[in-house]
Amino acid sequence: MRRALAPDPAGQLASQLAALACQSLLDEARLAPKPGLVDSRGNGAHSDLNLELMCRSARALQPAFFAMANAAWRQTPSTTLREQLGSLGRSGEQAMLQASGGVNTHRGAIWAIGLLVAAAAMDASQLQAAAVCQRAAALARLPDRLLPAQPRKGELACQRYGVGGARGEAQQGFPHITRLALPALQASRARGDGEVNARLNALLAIMSRLDDTCLLSRGGMPGLTLVQAGAAKVLAAGGVATLPGRRRLYQLEKDMLAQRLSPGGAADLLAATLLLDRLPAMAAN
User: What EC identifiers does the entry list (predicted)?
Assistant: First the structure.
């Protein structure tokens, strides 16, 4: 007679979180029309990326998100956990690079979403966005002594332009998600804009305010200013569900493509927004 296997609550939760994280990345990649970004229409401002590559990369990261959530299950913030998550995240980067043929498809998303799935696993009874983001911030503020000394492209942009970047966003509790993206998503749904338009408005809300290091790396401060102002104009015109807003969106896209501008940091935060939007329903189940 076979003995029944003992339940594995940590593994079950980690599996759910990893699946949601992967789905959020896939949903962000496929969403269209996203100005400057890879989507279901084409490659945006990128010559080395396409939708198939983005989707393959997203799926390759699911085991890393599982490992991070599993490691953080019912833990409290500590340097040991922070360094373990950092190591798992860097292993995830290697899986990403292998899946993408060496192209950086989701490095920023690994950082943001990895922290969020870990924070969710720390206390599955508290999965509201504000609570998860505050736990993620506590982790992000801890040091990682194993962090490679060589600065990344985004970190160089932070140093040059004096902005917080992905690290600062996480250490502050993801304010561009909790104060901008999620409220824009919910307000658009309440207006009846439709899910695609609601997600696009959430992206534009992030773009309108985020000091996106991807934009700074490609276009400097003039490029960032162009995108922030253009995104704000789309929202001021009523958002992408309105004809004036859609016209401004296409003008913004035209201006961005002319300068090869891509808001990659905003895309990462949109994927994180979609993850946080889904977590309360998971808790209810």
Answer: 2.4.2.52
Nearest by Cα to 212 from 228, 231, 196, 193:
228
What amino acid occupies position 53? Answer: L
Q: In sequence order, what are the residues at sequence separation of 6 or more whose Cβ sits closer than 8 angstroms to the Cβ of residue 257?
A: 35, 36, 44, 45
For residue range 225-243, what is the model confidence (pLDDT) as tens digits? Answer: 999 999 999 999 999 999 9
Kindly report the three-state secondary structure assignment for every residue of the chain: CCCCCCCCHHHHHHHHHHHHHHHHHHHHHHCCCCCCCCECCECCCCCCCCHHHHHHHHHHCHHHHHHHHHHHCCCCCCHHHHHHHHHHHHHHHHHHHHHHCCCCCCHHHHHHHHHHHHHHHHCCCCCCHHHHHHHHHHHHCCCCCCCCCCCCHHHHHHHHHCCCHHHHHHHCCCHHHHHHHHHHHHHHHHHCCCHHHHHHHHHHHHHCCCCCHHHHHHHHHHHHHHHHHHHHHHHHCCCCCCHHHHHHHHHHHHHHHHCCCCCHHHHHHHHHHHHHHHHHHHHHC
Distance CA 42, CA 29 (A): 11
| Residue where the block lists tokens 């992000």 | 140
Task: Quote the percentage of the chain above a pLDDT of 70.
Answer: 96
142 phi-psi bin (left φ>0, alpha ψ -120 to 50, beta other): beta
Domains of the chain: 9-147+162-284 (1.10.4200)
CA pseudo-torsion sign 144, 148, 153, 157: positive
pTM exceeds 0.90: yes
- Dihedral sign (CA 226, 260, 113, 199): positive
Which residues is 92 bridged to in the sheet?
Answer: none
Q: Are 181 and 189 in contact (CB under 8 A)?
A: no
